[in-house]
Structures are given as C-alpha cells and as structure tokens.
C-alpha cells in the first residue's frame, strides 16, 4: 500500500493531543454530571427524512448506502448535530423517560462541508439539553450558560464569553417595525460579522422587503450589547413596541441577571446573535474564546419549543453544545496547550535479560495495582537505550529490579536521582502520577 | 412528525444502561492506561480502497456520499473495525510516533450486516494494539490477554475465558499433512461451532481438496484444547511435522504459560480458533463469557505482521478488541446488570417558592464544588411532589433550605431520616456519592 495522506476536514490528533482532549472531556462530562445531566449516546445515523426536515445544513448531510445493497433498507444519513437525534430519541422513548429530562451527549457529528480553516467534516460536540412535556420552565434557559461556564472554568484555556440573545426580541422588534416575516431578516443579520453592516442593510432591502429606515433600525438593534440588564432600556429607547418584544426582553434579562449573580463576566446580552438553524424559538447562545474572537462560536445553542413533537405530544427543550473539536483545533493551531508526557506511563521497568521479564512483570503488576501506570522495557538492551526509551516518551521514572536479592531502585531520569524502592509501597510525587495538561508558555506570552 | 421507531441493528441504551456502559469503559480505559497504552481516535471514514483490501467483511462496508455531491471527493466508507484504520494511521504518522507504539482506541464501528441476534450494524469496540518497526517481539502476544483479563476482572460481569490459537500451528499442520493452501481449510474450520464437525469435514473435501484422512486430522487438531502447555504434546502425538508447526507451538506455549503465571484460569489454548479476517499471521484470540458461550466471542484479535506496510516500511502488530456493545447487549438482554439510580444526581434541592431559586442554586453550587452531583427542583411544587421527582429517578437525598435563618436539613428519602445540614460541609455516605453498578440479583441466581 502507498503511504496514506490525511483527508481534508477529518482531523486526527496524535496521542498527546488526544490526552489533552480526554482531560478536557473528563472535566466537561464531570461538570455535566454534577448538574444532574444523565449520559446518553444515540446512533450515528438517522432516517434521511428526519435530517432534511430542518435547517440550512441539510445540504451537507452524508448519505449512507451498503456496498452490496439488497434494497429494502431505509435511507440513512449521518447526523449533523446532536439536537435533532436527541429530539427523535425523546419522541421514541417518551414512555420510558422521566420529565423534565436532563441529558448530556458527547459524540462525533458529520457535515459534508467544503473544508476551510476551522471547519471540519467530522467533529466532536459536547451537548446538554433539558426537555419537558408540554411546557418547559424558563429558568432552564438561564441555567445553560452557568453549566458551560463551570465546565470550562479551571481548564488551561483562555476565558470565554457567552453571548445571549432571544429570538422573541428580534421577531417582536421586526414585527413592531412592520416586517412581518422574520426569517429573511434573521438570515441577513446572521451575516453581520461576515459581511458587515453595509451589505446586511442591502440584503435586508433586497431579501426581506425592508425600507432603508427599517434596515437601519434592525442594524441599531443588532449593535446593542451589554453585560447586564441595561441592554433592555437601550432596546426600548429605539421606540419599537410589540408584546413579543416585551416577552423576549423579560426573558433575556432573566438570563443575564442569573449569570451576573453566578459568574460575573461570563454572559453578555448581544442582540446581533441569530444562529443559522431555524429550530430555535427563544433564547440563543453563542460563545467566543478570548483571543480567538474572529474564529466564531465555540459553544452554541438555544431554546427549541417545537423540535420534538408528534401529534398531540410536544417536548419543548433548551440546550447548548460545546464544539470540542473546534475549540481544540483553534488552541492546537497556536500550540496553546501542552501535556507533561506523550504516554500515560509513569514508570518503565528496566530489564537485565529476557529471562527477567516475568519478575519485571510482577514489579509492574504491583505498581499498577496501586494506580501507577507502568510498562516493562521492550527488550533487555543496554540500560542507556532503555532510559532513552523512557526519555523519548516523557516517562519520568525507570525502575531497576535488584539483582541477587539486592533492593530494587527507581531513578527520576529528569534529575538523575536514584533511590532504593519497594514496588509494594513506592509512590511517585503526586504531580507525576498522571500526565498534566497546561497552557503552553509561548514566546509571545 | 410521526412517532419514530428503532432502527434494527443500531442499539441505543437508555441513560441507566449508558451509565453502566460508561463505568465499564472507564475501568477498561483505566486498565489500558495502567499498561501504558496511549489513547487514540481515528476518523470514522477511510478511503474505500483501504477498506476493501482485506477480509470477508468488505461487502458490509457502508459507503458515504454527500447529498449534494459536487464531485472530486475520494470515495469514503465507514470503518468496520479499528485495526485497519490504526494500521493506516501508523503508516501515515510513522515519522511522528515512537516505536514500539502502544495505543488504545475506543470507538464505534459500522457493518452493514443483515441484523440478527447479537449482531449490530453500529457497535462500540475497545482495542489495544502494539506495533513496532520491522519486527515486533513475541512477548507482546503474551501480554494482550493479561491486559484484557485485568480490565474485565473486578467488573460485575461473569468470568471470561480467552481462547488462544496460532495460525502457524494450523498452517504448519495443514502443510505437514499435505494441504498446501491453508486459507480454505481455515475458513472451513472457522465454521466448526456453527455447522459441526460432519459438515466441516464435507467442506474440507469440497473446498480445500482434502482427503477424508486429511479432513479427519484437521478435525482432530481442532478438537484439542487445554489450559496449559499440555496441548503441545497432544498436537505432536498426531504425528504431523513441519517447521512452521514447531514455531507456532513454541509461541502458543509462551502465551499459555505467561497467562497461567499471571492469571490462572484466564487463558486456554484452543486449536479450533481461526478468526475470519485474513490479516492475522500468528497468535489469534477469542473470548467467551461464562454462561453465554453460545453467543460467540466478546473479545478477539491477533498478530498481524503484514497489515501496515508501505514500500520497504513494515510495522508488524498485535492487538485485541473488546466488543463492548456485544458484551453489554448480552448482559442487558438477560437484565444481568443494574445501577443504583437512573441519574448522576445525589441531591435534589427542594424549593419553597420560585423566588428561592437563587438561594437554592447557591446550595447546589456549594455541594457541586465538593463533588456532590446536585439538581434544583424544577418547580416550587408541594414537597410531596418534589420528593416524588427524586424517587422516580433514584436520587437518594432531598435538601430543604431552612426558612428565616433556620438550619438547612437533608432527608434520605429511602429511610425517611432527616437531619440538619450545612451545604459547606455535609457529605453523603461514600456508597451514595456516585451511581453504583452491580450484577442484578435475578430470580434464577
């Protein structure tokens, strides 16, 4: 076989990067569980008609067929997010779930996009959602950002800002302005960061039937942002009135106030946030990473009152999704994260000759039984070569079984210090037991 | 949308089952790391020509296409195991890896099989592999079963038996018998458990050109099994000689002896084990779960000397794969595993009225900061209703914030015992902190 080459859009991390990803995921999952979210995984595939029901991403769906298809199978596609599969799961299993149902889900998703920087065709998402039967209390909309803030705080990554808006604010405002169909307005405003206010104004007149004055008002609304409830007065000062606008402002104030009390600085109300997918009906979230603002949102979501419904059954929900691959891709791209070694191994047991392998295996077993990750050397080479095996992987300790009844000894190969040791009791320093992830010290910092 | 129905072959666990799966996976991953295996994930897709290179499963590959394909993309399929992608990864990244390279990989794989009991189209595998450049020491073949034994021991599942064979034993034996092409012989013998010795004998004469005496000898070899090195004498007693047979017997004895010293009873030499995939060149492993022997192997693998090679570069490997979905599917099918609650939550904070939500949130935050998973009640309903919310999910404790300066109290809703408590210091009993997975007590046991 010829030497394989990477596939554009399908990132693969080397083991040290995967170790960083795992520690990040463990922290995220642990935080989700501390908030009572139960774990769930759904299958990777959904019937194609489900995937094509909603949203702008439907054109990006990967369709599956069996190589030797004998017909009769439903048309299947790979899921492009975790919200649509979750809504389907809730409908399918409603009789076996307790509502309100809180779940988290950490899985790969796939989108057949044209690859470009920061856009992947396969990527990992970490989602939380809460759904209830018939109605879902609004306080859950305020809880979502707090969970994400807790999950990401304490990780060696730059701080995040969660930008919150509410579709009701936008739709009510547009309606109050006299623009009855909010969809083309939202789609135009959603492009603000990409194409700028001038072109958005042109789009609004072209695609949403707005007058110049209406377009200007939409842009004024989108320009409002504040870390506290003061945004509401600035919206009201624009002079547009509508009951839905009032309802949206009240909701958005509750989200901002709750976050300001729990995690000052975490959340801002930002009225330009629209979200492309059209299943959101109220609160919407986007998140930027400090220093990476131009790279787009690394954590998004919102309230969806109508996504999961079947006949008379309706399960409104709210959720938020951390784009784990997106986040790590940005940080890895600037070499911003580092891990203290390239393998889980803490101790390498050296070998004097191949006959000593069973005894070395018993030393390794004794260390492992106390939680110390241990390998035995691959061959009874010269000790210098065995030490280099450890060095190249960042394994901090090499264990030398004692010959002829002499005590074993263990060497810290960074300092060169070697001490007698007993595999039944020896402990490495706490900082060496597991690989440690930290922010990389770069020339610029 | 109409009520969705399950897709055959794509299992989905409810959250309590997923919690069981997660604890199993955590134990498996932790054991792999204790042995120094580094984590890796590869993309879900491989170029189709890679997937179709080897083995009988190629017809089962799921092929991907983008819904709106603009052409020019490579043909891609979903991986059907984790070994072929790993071999590709090693070739692609050889210059950035340290050899011997030990990695573990826990991911979904997909096979477009006709669904039947115990066969899935999407399932989770947990693999370890070790590859080296040019040659790989044989002692790694002996290490594989020990890692799996350690990973599964201590879990609340029935004991496993790992059955080991060696392709060199079979091929040398067949060659010594005068059967030059081992492939059709292996394929026939591989069907022994399914169709029985009579039909295998007929297959051997029909498809492998065997005489009745040769077929009988092949069946005699396949009938040999032993938990220790005694199998080798029984093979030699069949009177067939061949250098490859001798090499295979020596290797197989080393695997069995190492396992007998480390984990008595874990491994047996079983000379009928063949493995369907044709990339194995030496040791092969299969594993049965006590009480589920007829359900086939739940952990399989082997030595592959030629899977990863490109031009002059060659990376022989050995690996073993725990069929996590297969294993759990069997146990869930008999309701053999149970978890102490249906959610991670340990404490539900009750609410007297909605205005108390911020204060309840502070109690929850104090408990979470000390690792105690906590939810706040969804609404300020009557306490009886809030307690039923906890009961239905198996949440053991309900927390009552004290009114007007009175102390908080916490109630164990199983015993009814209620005590004053301070969220800054209260600890649940250790057994209640996290959900506990255990073997279910069934009527028959």
TrEMBL record, chains A, B:
It is an enzyme of class 6 (ligase). SUPFAM superfamilies: Class II aaRS ABD-related (SSF52954), Class II aaRS and biotin synthetases (SSF55681). This is Histidine--tRNA ligase. PROSITE patterns: AA_TRNA_LIGASE_II. L-histidine binds at residues 81-83, 111, 125, 129, 275, 279-280. GO terms for molecular function: ATP binding; histidine-tRNA ligase activity. GO terms for cellular component: cytoplasm. Residues 20-344 form the Aminoacyl-transfer RNA synthetases class-II family profile domain. Belongs to the class-II aminoacyl-tRNA synthetase family. NCBIfam families: hisS (TIGR00442). Keywords: Aminoacyl-tRNA synthetase, ATP-binding, Cytoplasm, Ligase, Nucleotide-binding, Protein biosynthesis. GO terms for biological process: histidyl-tRNA aminoacylation. Its EC number is 6.1.1.21. Homodimer. It comes from the Bacteria. InterPro entries: aa-tRNA-synth_II, aa-tRNA-synth_II/BPL/LPL, Anticodon-bd, Anticodon-bd_dom_sf, His-tRNA-ligase, HisRS-like_core, HisRS/HisZ. It catalyses: tRNA(His) + L-histidine + ATP = L-histidyl-tRNA(His) + AMP + diphosphate + H(+).
């Amino acid at each position: 076989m010829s030497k394989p080459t990477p596939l554009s859009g399908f990132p693969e991390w080397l083991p040290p990067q995967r170790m960083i990803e795992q520690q990040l995921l463990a922290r995220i999952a642990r935080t989700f569980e501390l908030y009572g979210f139960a774990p769930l995984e759904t299958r990777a595939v959904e019937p194609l008609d489900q995937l094509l029901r909603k949203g702008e991403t439907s054109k990006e769906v990967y369709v599956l067929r069996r190589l030797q298809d004998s017909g009769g199978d439903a048309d299947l596609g790979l899921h492009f997010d975790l919200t649509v599969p979750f809504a389907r799961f809730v409908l399918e299993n409603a009789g076996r779930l307790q509502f309100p149902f809180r779940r988290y889900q950490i899985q790969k998703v796939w989108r057949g996009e044209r690859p470009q920087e920061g856009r992947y065709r396969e990527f990992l998402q970490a989602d939380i959602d809460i759904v209830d039967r018939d109605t879902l209390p609004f306080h859950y909309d305020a809880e979502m950002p707090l969970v994400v803030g807790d999950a990401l705080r304490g990780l060696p990554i730059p701080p995040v800002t969660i930008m919150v808006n509410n579709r009701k604010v936008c739709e009510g405002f547009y309606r109050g302005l006299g623009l009855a169909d909010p969809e083309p307005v939202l789609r135009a405003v959603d492009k603000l960061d990409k194409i700028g206010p001038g072109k958005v104004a042109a789009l609004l007149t072209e695609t949403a039937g707005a007058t110049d004055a209406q377009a200007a008002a939409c842009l004024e609304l989108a320009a409002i942002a504040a870390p506290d409830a003061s945004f509401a007065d600035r919206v009201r000062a624009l002079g547009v009135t509508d009951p839905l606008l009032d309802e949206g402002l009240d909701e958005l104030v509750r989200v901002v106030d709750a976050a300001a009390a729990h995690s000052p600085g975490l959340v801002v109300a930002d009225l330009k946030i629209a979200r492309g997918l059209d299943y959101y009906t109220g609160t919407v979230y986007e998140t930027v990473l400090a220093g990476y603002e131009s790279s787009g949102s690394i954590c998004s979501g919102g309230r969806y009152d109508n996504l999961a419904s079947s006949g008379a059954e309706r399960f409104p929900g709210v959720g938020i999704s951390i784009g784990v691959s997106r986040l790590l891709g940005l940080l890895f791209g600037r070499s911003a994260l580092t891990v203290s070694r390239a393998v889980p191994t803490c101790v390498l047991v050296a070998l004097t000759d191949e006959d000593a392998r069973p005894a070395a295996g018993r030393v390794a077993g004794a260390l492992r039984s106390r939680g110390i990750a241990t390998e035995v050397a691959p061959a009874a080479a010269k000790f210098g070569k065995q030490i280099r095996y450890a060095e190249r992987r960042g394994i901090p300790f090499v264990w030398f079984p004692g010959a002829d009844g002499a005590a074993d000894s263990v060497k810290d190969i960074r300092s060169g210090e070697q001490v007698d040791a007993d595999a039944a009791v020896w402990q490495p320093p706490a900082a060496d037991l597991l690989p440690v992830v930290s922010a990389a010290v770069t020339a610029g910092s």
